[in-house]
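Work Package 3 committed the consortium to producing structural models of liganded targets before the mid-term review. Because experimental data for this complex are still outstanding, the team generated a predictive model from sequence and the ligand definition alone, so that downstream docking and mutagenesis planning could proceed in parallel. The input record is reproduced below exactly as it was submitted to the modelling pipeline, together with the SMILES string for flavin mononucleotide.
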Amino acid sequence: MKDAVFVGIGGASGVCIGVRAAKALSEHVRVHLSFTQEAALIAEREGVSLKDWPPNVVVHHRCDWSAPVASGSYRLKGAVIAPCSMGMLGRIAGGVSGNLIERAADVALKEGWPLVLVPRETPLSAIHLENMLRLNRAGAVILPPVLTFYHRPGAIADMVNFIVGRIMDCLGIEHSLYERWDEV
Ligand SMILES: Cc1cc2nc3c(=O)[nH]c(=O)nc-3n(C[C@H](O)[C@H](O)[C@H](O)COP(=O)(O)O)c2cc1C
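The resulting structure, written out as tokens with the ligand in place, is given here.
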């Protein structure tokens, strides 16, 4: 069976990060994808399409509890939520699975699979930070989409590729999305 990864897109700014991650991952593994209603709304505002996925991307409705990724008996190489809103972060930290994305994250944590969360908010409150610490202690990787300059990005797409490359690093998937730091 082909390796599979779950990608969830939450209702935060930066929907393009999740879309890029799903497309880049689909070149290596099967991608199960789901997005929330708020994500769809924000995608429209940000001019990002949530249609026309590559054949290796399977889209699940956010309330499809019978999707394979809702069960730990379906093996996943890992799960990514990009972007992850503070609401979704809080629900995952509290073990509340209100939709398929939160359930997939819950499953990844209980099964001990890599879970990469890309939280998008600034500045962060003590509640946000405590939720992130709680999730990190439970095994999740907290990977905020911070700005990077040392690789000299020429466009927003270069910064997005850098973040997606770091997500793929966490999942142990080889890529050439950014140039690695090395001795000069
Ligand atoms: C245009 C827009 C941008 C938003 N950006 C963020 C954001 O960056 N981070 C965040 O935590 N919430 C953001 N929100 C608020 C969330 O969408 C809202 O809390 C929502 O209930 C979370 O949705 P989710 O559970 O689907 O992630 C934004 C809302 C809108 C309309």
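Reviewers should note the following from the model. The domain at 4-170 is CATH 3.40.50.1950 (Rossmann fold). These observations will guide the Year 2 experiments.
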